[in-house]
Structures are given as structure tokens and as C-alpha cells.
UniProtKB/TrEMBL annotation:
Its EC number is 2.1.1.178. This is Ribosomal RNA small subunit methyltransferase F. SUPFAM superfamilies: S-adenosyl-L-methionine-dependent methyltransferases. Pfam families: Methyltr_RsmB-F, Methyltr_RsmF_N, Methyltranf_PUA, YebU_pre-PUA_dom. Belongs to the class I-like SAM-binding methyltransferase superfamily. RsmB/NOP family. The gene is rsmF. InterPro entries: Methyltr_RsmF_N (IPR031341), MeTrfase_RsmB-F_NOP2_cat (IPR049560), MeTrfase_RsmB-F_NOP2_dom (IPR001678), Nol1_Nop2_Fmu_2 (IPR027391), Nop2p (IPR011023), RCMT (IPR023267), rRNA_ssu_MeTfrase_F (IPR023545), RsmB/NOL1/NOP2-like_CS (IPR018314). It comes from the Bacteria. The active site is at residue 247.
Length: 479
């Protein structure tokens, strides 16, 4: 395997030498950092079981090694990366798996470590969506997940990944994470704060990650992290779980931030040790009960994870000084809702009582019912799923609703491999057998690709333009 040429500042190396636990060696750390990162993926259990996924990809000759802390996670080795990028496989395009670094699966594993299913969860720094989609899968698409992202350019990527994975229970916001403690006090059962950090753990993926590194910068970042964890702690209900994580290795941004929270609210914070999270967790366990993952321990990115419980209420923050503005949606009346649900079922789109119909002008949306108490408290960029637009002939069903809610057992037109490729390239398809209905959910391997309109013998492509692929696609290989 080729070596990375990683840039290390001298002060960073001195700090790491000092921070290295006795059972680890500094030479092993340096050697691990120089090795390219192993690829890994997480099966999207909202779409497919792990066993069914393994059976589906068995003919491809992928070597899949289980990730110890995530039952859905696997390191992957494959010979045909040059011939076909992993992101261009049929299984990735239809949302059956997410390409996610193994150590980044740890925080969500910690969030759900007690086996409880929280009803209201927040992911404070959510883009590009690996942990958001992992949380939604653990919640089985029920309850409500607020996914926040401060960077406007990354909100679009976050939504694209949520949509591809068929997620319905998520609301997106675009704020500085420091607003939530005041805006949504004691609203969440569980919160993940995967905090912005100096990124010392990602040098295997980005050899230049430490080009702008400095001790001063780390301390400035830590000051922001303290404000973020304080805000998240206020937004957490008593009895709730807060997971604080970073992809960096210094104590200033990790143990010290948690110690600051403990000192600030000594009667209200309890550390929930992570030594039992998976079989070899003790190898990364700190004396406090956190996981401080150096790259050589599990041959993955460096990471830090702390799990905390809020044991008592704390004094609220001053109410926010902004105005949310008028909420532009209204809930649909019972009779109208029944008509929409009936029309959707005829196409093959179905949902349950965890989602409710709301309307804005000609748009019809499905909101997670758990979000209703939060409406009017913050401004949402997007809530749930856009189901349809009304027009004089009925409904124009939306792509993201088909991907999330299609019942392909009842209705669905299975495409050949060649037709599925044409679909992803944005072209119309001409199936050998003409479908019985005008609106047709097209599938490949049994999973929905989108909704087509039958026009004579042609199925008119409605795949969103921004998702259309060119270049190499699945099937252009000898599998």
C-alpha cells in the first residue's frame, strides 16, 4: 500500500508524544498516520437488512470486514475501484449503503448505547449527513430528527444524502449551533454534537490537514466548542443523552471541553462510560470513560467520543431576541388528507401516523408529527418530505417521496440493468412490457429509482436533473 506524505508540525508531534497512553507507541502512531485510510461503508437498514445486502453484493467479490462498533458497518476492499467508483454502484445510487468512515460511526453507536429509542433527536453539525442518516436509521425513520448545518453550501449536500437514503423524519435548520440552548430549551431526548475541530485525526484522508495547525488555533476552536456544548446541554431535557465527539486528538478540544461542562454544571452532568460499547473498546478508553481513538488502535481515523447524561434541569438561557416569522404551512383537514393519501396509495406511496400532511400554496408536505411542538420556535429550512404539487389534473408526486415511501411490493416496474443505467443518465426508457398505470414507480433490484410517466410505449424520465449521472455506471464491469 502506498504511503501518504503527511505534514506534521513539530509542536503537534510533541503534543501527541505527551498524550500517547502507555499501552500505545508513538512510532505506531506515526506509521498509522502515513498509511492510506481504509474505505468503509454502512448498510442503510431503512432500505435493506444487513443479511440481504451481503447476499446482494456477494457476486461482486467485495471483501467486507465488520466494524466492531456498528453492526451495519463494514470495511471494504474491492479490486474494481478503478473500473467503477463505489459511489457509482447501483446499490449506492439507490441508497442501500452510505460511504462512511468507520470511526465516524462511533458517536451514533454511543448515542444509542443504552438501547432506548429517543423520540426527539438533534444533530448539531450535520453535513454531509453520514451521522444524520445513521441516526435516522437507528430511529427507524420515526420520531423527529433535527439536522442543523451552519454552512449554507453544505445544507444542499445534506438534503441530497437524506433524500437518497429515503429518510422522512428529519427537519433541516441552518444556524450557528450556539442558538439552540436559548431557542429550544429542554426539547431533545438525545443530542449529537460532532463539533467543528482542528481535524488532527483525518491526516490519513487529507495529508495536508495540519498545514494551518497551531496551538493558538486549537485553543480558539476549543472556546467555540465550549459554547456549542453549553448550548446543546441547555437544549437537552433532564434525563437525556448528549454525545460530544470530534475527529481530532488533542486534549484541549476533547477531554478539556467535557471537563469544562462538568465544572460548570456539577450537579447536572453525569459521564456515561463507554468501555462496554463494543468488545475492544477498552483499548481506546480514557480514565474518565471516554473513547480517545488514536489511528493505530483500530486502523481508522483518529476520533474522540464522550457520552453524558443530563441528570437535572439547569437555569435557562435568556430568550432569543430574533423573530421567527409567520409559519407558511397549515395542516391539511381530515377529508383532504384522506383524499391525498388515497391518491398516493394508487401510485404506490404510503406512510403511517408518524407523518402528517401540511400544505403551502400548491405544495403538499409530510411532516414528522413529533416536530409540531417546535414549530414557531426556530425557522426551518426544510421539514420532512415534499410529497406532491397540486395541479388541475391531480398531483405531481415528488422524487424524494417516492424514494422514501414507495411500496414496491404492490406497484413497481422493474427495469433491466440497461434501462436502469439509462434512468440514472436522465433518459427515457422503453420497457418490453408496457405498465398498466400512467404513473409508474420504476425499480431496480426491487428498490425504487423514481416515478415515470407512461406515454405510449415510453416511460418519461423524472429523475431530478441535479442527480443525473454521466461517466461510469454499474453494469460496465465483469461481475
Amino acid at each position: 500500500m502506498a504511503q501518504n506524505s503527511v505534514y506534521f508540525p513539530d509542536e503537534f508531534l510533541a503534543q501527541m508524544r505527551e498524550a500517547m497512553p502507555a499501552h500505545l507507541t508513538f512510532d505506531d502512531f506515526l506509521e498509522a498516520c502515513q498509511r492510506p485510510l481504509r474505505r468503509s461503508l454502512r448498510v442503510n437498514t431503512l432500505k435493506i437488512t444487513v443479511d440481504d445486502f451481503l447476499a446482494l453484493v456477494a457476486p461482486y467479490g467485495w471483501q467486507l470486514t465488520p466494524v466492531p462498533w456498528c453492526a451495519e458497518g463494514f470495511w471494504i476492499e474491492r479490486d474494481d475501484e478503478e473500473a467503477l467508483p463505489l459511489g457509482s454502484t447501483a446499490e449506492h445510487l439507490s441508497g442501500l449503503f452510505y460511504i462512511q468512515e468507520a470511526s465516524s460511526m462511533l458517536p451514533v453507536a454511543a448515542l444509542f448505547a443504552d438501547g432506548m429509542l429517543p423520540e426527539r433527536v438533534m444533530d448539531v453539525a450535520a453535513a454531509p449527513g453520514s451521522k444524520t442518516t445513521q441516526i435516522a436509521a437507528r430511529m427507524n425513520n420515526r420520531g423527529m430528527l433535527l439536522a442543523n448545518e451552519f454552512s449554507a453550501s453544505r445544507v444542499k449536500v445534506l438534503h441530497a444524502n437524506i433524500s437518497r437514503c429515503g429518510i422522512a423524519n428529519t427537519a433541516l435548520t441552518h444556524f450557528d449551533g450556539r442558538v439552540f440552548g436559548a431557542a429550544l430549551p429542554e426539547c431533545f431526548d438525545a443530542i449529537l454534537l460532532d463539533a467543528p475541530c482542528s481535524g488532527e485525526g483525518v491526516v490519513r484522508k487529507d495529508p495536508d490537514a495540519l498545514k494551518n495547525w497551531s496551538l493558538t488555533s486549537n485553543l480558539e476552536i476549543a472556546a467555540t466548542q465550549r459554547e456549542l456544548i453549553d448550548s446543546a446541554f441547555h437544549a437537552l431535557r433532564p434525563g437525556g443523552t448528549l454525545v460530544y465527539s470530534t475527529c481530532t486528538l488533542n486534549r484541549d478540544e476533547n477531554e478539556s471541553v467535557v471537563a469544562w461542562l462538568l465544572a460548570r454544571y456539577p450537579q447536572a452532568v453525569e459521564i456515561m462510560p463507554l468501555g462496554e460499547l463494543f468488545t475492544t473498546a477498552s483499548e481506546a478508553l480514557t480514565p474518565e470513560g471516554f473513547l480517545h481513538v488514536f489511528p493505530q488502535i483500530y486502523d481508522c481515523e483518529g476520533f474522540f467520543v464522550a457520552r453524558l447524561r443530563k441528570t437535572a434541569a439547569i437555569a435557562p438561557l435568556p430568550a432569543p431576541g430574533y423573530k421567527v416569522g409567520k409559519f407558511p404551512f397549515f395542516p391539511m383537514k381530515t377529508r383532504e388528507s384522506a383524499e391525498v393519501a388515497s391518491a398516493a396509495r394508487k401510485v404506490g406511496i404510503e406512510w403511517d401516523e408518524s407523518l402528517a400532511l401540511w400544505q403551502r400554496d400548491k405544495e403538499i408536505w409530510l411532516f414528522p408529527t413529533e416536530i409540531e411542538p417546535l414549530l414557531g420556535k426556530v425557522r426551518f429550512s426544510r421539514i420532512g418530505i415534499k410529497l406532491a404539487e397540486t395541479h388541475n389534473k391531480g398531483f405531481r408526486w415528488q422524487h424524494e417521496a417516492v424514494i422514501a415511501l414507495a411500496n414496491t411490493d404492490k406497484l413497481g416496474q422493474e427495469l433491466t440493468l440497461e434501462d436502469a443505467q439509462e434512468w440514472y443518465r436522465g433518459r427515457d426508457v422503453y420497457p418490453q412490457q408496457s405498465p398498466a398505470h400512467d404513473d409508474v414507480i420504476v425499480t431496480f433490484q426491487g428498490f425504487p429509482l423514481g416515478l415515470a410517466k407512461r406515454i405510449n410505449s415510453r416511460l418519461k424520465n423524472s429523475y431530478p436533473r441535479e442527480l443525473v449521472r454521466d461517466g461510469k455506471l454499474f453494469g460496465n464491469r465483469s461481475e
